[in-house]
Design a protein that fits this description.
By secondary structure, this protein is α/β, with parallel strands linked by helices. The protein is built from 30 helices and ten strands.
C-alpha cells in the first residue's frame, strides 16, 4: 500500500491505534479500493491455480512419454529401440568396455591381496585400510564431477579423461615397491572411478529412450559382471604363464589403455532429450505454444544435493544403498581371504572361482532386464519390491555359501549371491534416476555411490573386522545377512512413495513450463507465489497446505495466533527453511530449493524479530555487513548508509556505538536500515513493534511506508493487529499452520471470530467484536 493510503501520525499511541482501527469508521472509498486491489491479486492467483488443472490433465500423458502406462504396448526389441535413439550401440558398448576395464585394478588387488601383502610386507588390516582409502577417493571424486557437468553436457569428456586415469593407475600398480606406492595407485584409481559413479549411468539414460533404458542399464551392469569374469581370468592366465602379480597389473593396464582409446568417440546427447524435452513438448502442445524460455535460476550444486535428499523415495533408496554397501563391499575383501584360508585356494584357483560365480549373473541380467522393463512400465514401485525379494534370496544364498562344508554348494551359493547383487543395481538405478530431472542424475548417481561404497562400505569393513577376529571369516560373511534383511525391509517401504515422487517430478516440469508460457504471453503473475506449502520441524508439522501471494509493490499483513506458523512461512520464503511439499515461485521462477544466500541476490530480504543486528559490531559496521553480503560497490554502499542515517538521525549520532548498547527501538531502526542498503524487491519483517514504545513504533512505520513507496513489496508479521491493518490493504490470517483468511484488510477487521483468538487481551480488550 502506498504511503499516502495511511494518515496515522508518527507519535500515535498504541491505545489510539487499537481503538481507531478496529472500532473507528473506515472510509467507504478506502474499503472499495482495498477490495478491488485484493480482487486483482486473486485474479492473478486464479491464473496460477489453473496450473493444477493442467498438471492433473497432463500427468497421464507425461507418464506415457516417460514410458510408464498400464495400457502401453509391449516395448519394442532392444535393437529397434537402439536404432531409434540415433546413436546406435556405440554408447552402450563404449561405456560397457570402460566399466569392464575399470574392474581390473580392483579385482586384481582383491584376488592378489595375499601375494601383495607378502611381497610388500603389508598386513591384511593395512591392505584393507588402503582399499578403504580408495573407497574414500571414489566418494570424494564423484561429487565434484557431478558439479562439473550439472550445467553443461560434458559427461563424455569426464568419462574419457578418467578412463585414461585409471588405465595409468592399473599399469603403474605393477611397479609399486612400498605401502606408499600402493596408496598412490589405489587413490588414483579410486578418484578416476568416480566418473563411473557420477556420469556413466546418467549418460546412458540420456542416450536411449525410456522404453529401452532398463535393458540398457542391465546391459551395462552385465558388462560390469563381465569385467569381474574377465579380470580373474586374466589374473589366472597370466599367473599360470609364470608372471608375478606385477606382470598381471602391467598386462591389465595395457588393456585399459586400449579400451580408453576405443571410447574416444563418446558424445554427450544433452540432458533429457527423451524425457524432459518430450514432457515440455506435451505441455507446449496443450497450451498451443511453440516454445518457452528455460528457467534461468537452475539450482546450484549443494542445492541439488539437498533437494534430492528431501525426496522421500531418494532418502529411502540412499539408506538402502548404504545397507547394501555394508554387506557387499566388505564381502569382496573378506571373500578371497576366506577362499585362501578355508579352502586353500591359490591365486589361480581364486581367479577361476570368481569368474565362475559371476557367470550366472549374465543370463540372469538378460532375463531380468526385459522383465523389469515391463514391470517398470506398469508400476515403477513394483520394481523396488522385486529388488527387496532378490535381497532375501541373497540372504539365503550367502548363509549356504559361508557354512557349507562341501565345495559345490559353496560355489552355487556364491554364484547366486553375485547374481542377486547384479540384479539389484539396475532395478534401483532405473527407479532412482527416473523420479528426478535429468540434470540432477549425476548428483543422484554420485550420492548413491557414496552411500554404497562410502557410508555402507566403510561401516561394513569396520563391523566385519571385529566379527572376523571373534568368529572367523566364515562367521563374518554369514553376519552380512543381517544388513541384507534390513535393506530388504527399507526397499519394501520405499515402494509406496515411488509413484508419488514420479508424479511430483512431472508436476514440477509441467508447472515450470506453464509459467514460462504464461510469462511469454504477457499474463500478469504474482511476484511471490507460495503454493500448497507443508513444512515440518522433524516429525512436527507446522504448515499445512499454505497458499500465500504477494504482488509487486504490495504491502501485506500476515497475522495470526502465537505458534500459527507465521515466522516459519517467512523462513520458507527467505530460504531458511525448505518445505516438505509445495512450491515457491518468485517473479515466475521456481526458487523452492534455492539457498537463502541466492535469494538475497534475487531481491528477497528478511528482518527477523529481535535478531537482526550483530551486537559486537558498531552501527556503522552492521550497515557495512548488510551491504557487503551482496558485494555492493563502495559508492552504492555509502549511498545506502547515508540514506539510513537520513531516515534515522539517531543512528547517525550513535554510528560508532556497539549495536548491543542500543535501545530496543534503535536496534529495530538499525535492522530496518538493511532495506535502505540492500534495496530489496521483497522485504519480510517479523514483529516490527514487539516491546517498543508507541512513538518509536510510529517512526518505524513511517520508514516502512517510505520503503514500500519506492516499489519494494513488504510482508509484515505483526503482534498488533491494529498496527498491521493501519498499513496494509491486503491481509492473511493464520491459525494452527493454515490460512484461515485471505482478503481485504477492511474485511478482516469485521472478522471477530478470528481476531478474538489472537488479541483477546490485546487489541480487542474492552471492545465488542
Amino acid at each position: 500500500m502506498a504511503a499516502g493510503n495511511s494518515s496515522k501520525p508518527d507519535d500515535v499511541t498504541r491505545a489510539e491505534l487499537d481503538t481507531t482501527v478496529i472500532v473507528g469508521a473506515v472510509a467507504g472509498d478506502d474499503v472499495v479500493k482495498d477490495r478491488q486491489h485484493v480482487e486483482q491479486i486473486h485474479r492473478a492467483e486464479a491464473l496460477v491455480e489453473t496450473l493444477e488443472d493442467t498438471q492433473e490433465r497432463l500427468r497421464e500423458s507425461a507418464r506415457r512419454v516417460l514410458g510408464i502406462s498400464r495400457t502401453a504396448e509391449e516395448p519394442p526389441p532392444l535393437a529397434e529401440t537402439v536404432k531409434r535413439s540415433g546413436v546406435g550401440w556405440y554408447p552402450l558398448v563404449a561405456l560397457g568396455l570402460l566399466i569392464v576395464v575399470d574392474q581390473f585394478q580392483s579385482w586384481g588387488f582383491f584376488i592378489l591381496g595375499p601375494e601383495i601383502s607378502w611381497a610388500l610386507g603389508v598386513g591384511r588390516g593395512t591392505l584393507t585400510f588402503l582399499v578403504l582409502l580408495k573407497t574414500l577417493a571414489v566418494m570424494l571424486a564423484s561429487l565434484p564431477m557431478a558439479a562439473f557437468v550439472q550445467n553443461r553436457p560434458k559427461r563424455d569428456v569426464v568419462a574419457k579423461i578418467t578412463a585414461f586415469g585409471w588405465a595409468a593407475a592399473t599399469l603403474f600398480s605393477g611397479f609399486v615397491i612400498n605401502v606408499w606406492g600402493v596408496l598412490l595407485v589405489l587413490v588414483t584409481d579410486g578418484a578416476s572411478t568416480g566418473s563411473v559413479e557420477a556420469v556413466h549411468r546418467p549418460l546412458l539414460m540420456d542416450s536411449y529412450p525410456p522404453e529401452g533404458r532398463v535393458r540398457a542399464l542391465s546391459g551395462y551392469r552385465g558388462a560390469a559382471a563381465a569385467g569381474t569374469i574377465v579380470a580373474p581370468l586374466i589374473v589366472g592366465l597370466v599367473t599360470v604363464l609364470g608372471f608375478t602379480w606385477r606382470g598381471v597389473f602391467v598386462f591389465m593396464g595395457i588393456l585399459c589403455i586400449g579400451a580408453a582409446v576405443l571410447a574416444l568417440r563418446l558424445k554427450d546427447p544433452g540432458f533429457g532429450r527423451f524425457d524432459l524435452e518430450r514432457v515440455r513438448q506435451t505441455v507446449r502442445a496443450d497450451a498451443g505454444a511453440e516454445t518457452a524460455a528455460s528457467d534461468d535460476r537452475q539450482l546450484g550444486f549443494f542445492e541439488i544435493c539437498r533437494r534430492l535428499l528431501l525426496i522421500p523415495t531418494m532418502r529411502k533408496l540412499m539408506a538402502a544403498w548404504a545397507v547394501f554397501g555394508m554387506l557387499f563391499s566388505p564381502m569382496l575383501t573378506f571373500l578371497f581371504f576366506f577362499l585362501d584360508e578355508e579352502w586353500n585356494m591359490g591365486a589361480a584357483a581364486r581367479s577361476l572361482f570368481l569368474a565362475g560365480v559371476w557367470v550366472l549373473a549374465l543370463p540372469a541380467l538378460a532375463v531380468f532386464g526385459r522383465r523389469v522393463e515391463a514391470m517398470f512400465r506398469d508400476d515403477p514401485g513394483s520394481v523396488v519390491r522385486v529388488a527387496a525379494r532378490v535381497l532375501l534370496v541373497f540372504v539365503a544364498a550367502i548363509i549356504v555359501a559361508a557354512l557349507s562344508p562341501w565345495f559345490v554348494p559353496m560355489l552355487v551359493g556364491f554364484a547366486v549371491v553375485f547374481a542377486a547383487a547384479a540384479l539389484i543395481q539396475p532395478a534401483l538405478n532405473i527407479v532412482m534416476l527416473s523420479i528426478i530431472p535429468p540434470y540432477m542424475r549425476p548428483h543422484a548417481s554420485a550420492l548413491s555411490g557414496i552411500f554404497f561404497a562410502g557410508v555402507g562400505g566403510i561401516s561394513g569393513l569396520l563391523l566385519l573386522s571385529g566379527i572376523d577376529r571373534r568368529f572367523g571369516i566364515g562367521g563374518a560373511i554369514v553376519s552380512m545377512s543381517v544388513p541384507a534383511i534390513l535393506a530388504a525391509w527399507v526397499l519394501r517401504t520405499t515402494a509406496r512413495s515411488v509413484n508419488d515422487d514420479l508424479d511430483r517430478m512431472i508436476d514440477e516440469i509441467v508447472e515450470r513450463e506453464e509459467i514460462e508460457i504464461l510469462r511469454l504471453k504477457g499474463q500478469h503473475l504474482p511476484m511471490l507465489s507460495c503454493r500448497h506449502i507443508d513444512f515440518s520441524y522433524g516429525q512436527l508439522q507446522v504448515l499445512f497446505d499454505v497458499n500465500f501471494t504477494v504482488d509487486d509493490g504490495e504491502m501485506v499483513a500476515l497475522l495470526g495466533t502465537n505458534g500459527a506458523g507465521k515466522s516459519t512461512l517467512l523462513r520458507v520464503i527467505s530460504g531458511l527453511g525448505l518445505p516438505s511439499k509445495g512450491s515457491v515461485h518468485f517473479r515466475g521462477a521456481d526458487i523452492t530449493y534455492v539457498d537463502a544466500e541466492r535469494r538475497l541476490d534475487f531481491g528477497i530480504t528478511q528482518i527477523p524479530g529481535g535478531k537482526a543486528t550483530f551486537g559486537p559490531l558498531t552501527v556503522l559496521d552492521n550497515l557495512r555487513v548488510y551491504g557487503h553480503s551482496l558485494g555492493r560497490t563502495t559508492k552504492a554502499l555509502e549511498r545506502g548508509i547515508e540514506a539510513t542515517f537520513e531516515a534515522f538521525p539517531r543512528l547517525d549520532e550513535r554510528k560508532h556505538q556497539l549495536a548491543s548498547t542500543l535501545s530496543g527501538g534503535e536496534q529495530q531502526m538499525l535492522a530496518v536500515g538493511k532495506a535502505f542498503i540492500l534495496q530489496p524487491r521483497l522485504l519480510l519483517i517479523d514483529e516490527l513493534s514487539l516491546g517498543l514504545a508507541p512513538k518509536i513504533v510510529g517512526e518505524l512505520l513511517e520508514m516502512v511506508r517510505r520503503i514500500n513507496a519506492t516499489g519494494t513489496a513488504v510482508v509484515l508479521v505483526e503482534q498488533s493487529v491494529n498496527i498491521a491493518l493501519s498499513l496494509v490493504d491486503h491481509a492473511y490470517f493464520m491459525e494452527k499452520g493454515e490460512i484461515r483468511f485471505d482478503g481485504a484488510a477492511a474485511d478482516l477487521r469485521g472478522r471477530g471470530d478470528l481476531l478474538r483468538s489472537v488479541f483477546l487481551e490485546g487489541a480487542t480488550k474492552g471492545l465488542e467484536i
